[in-house]
Amino acid sequence: MSINWGPHFIVPSQAAREFSGIVVLRENFDEASLREELRNLGLAGAVVRVINPWYYRRRGEETWLKIGESDQREENFPVRWDTSHLADGTYEVLGLMHVVVRVDDQERVIARQNVVEVTVKN
Q1: DSSP β-ladder status, 18-19 and 106-120
Q2: Does 3 fall in a domain?
Q3: How many domains does the chain have?
Q4: What CATH number did the domain enclosing 13 receive?
Q5: pLDDT-based confidence at residue 9 (cuts at 50, 70, 90)
Q6: In angstroms, what CA-CA distances link 58 with 3, 19, 28?
């Protein structure tokens, strides 16, 4: 059974899902749940890196465009997104968190995604 360790998009309020200009995207994860998931997958080992690339697309589109990526866990993987060049409308934002684990002498990677819908209103 899969454990929901994250990623979890950080939105302080529903109003914060309406973006204009430059915004900072952030995500976090639950470390205890992550460790349980790693044990369940047979990957109990040292977490050596966590990186979170961010993408967006207009709702209804198929292709994701990369915003940026962060490995700054202590700051909740922040990435600045300049929406000022986008048309007003509904967009999806994807955080695709990668966790690199060292098991014996190998590095293994697991990934989880979180997609949220936001409104761009410039």
Answers
A1: parallel
A2: no
A3: 1
A4: 2.60.40
A5: confident
A6: 29, 13, 24
DSSP 27-51: EE--HHHHHHHHHHTT--SEEEEEE
DSSP for 75-105 reads GTS-EEEE-TTSPSEEEEEEEEEEEEEEETT
Query: Radius of gyration over alpha carbons of the chain, in Å?
Result: 16
Q: Verify cis geometry, omega within 30 degrees of 0, for the bond prior to 12.
A: no
Domain residues for the domain of 45 are 8-120
Q: Which two tokens stand for residue 28?
A: 């976090």
CA angle 84, 90, 91 (to 5 degrees): 75
pLDDT value, residue 7: 75
Residue 1 lies in a domain: no
- Each residue's pLDDT tens digit, 70-83: 999 999 999 999 99
- 31 three-state secondary structure: helix
Q: Is the dihedral of CA 9, 13, 17, 20 positive or negative?
A: negative
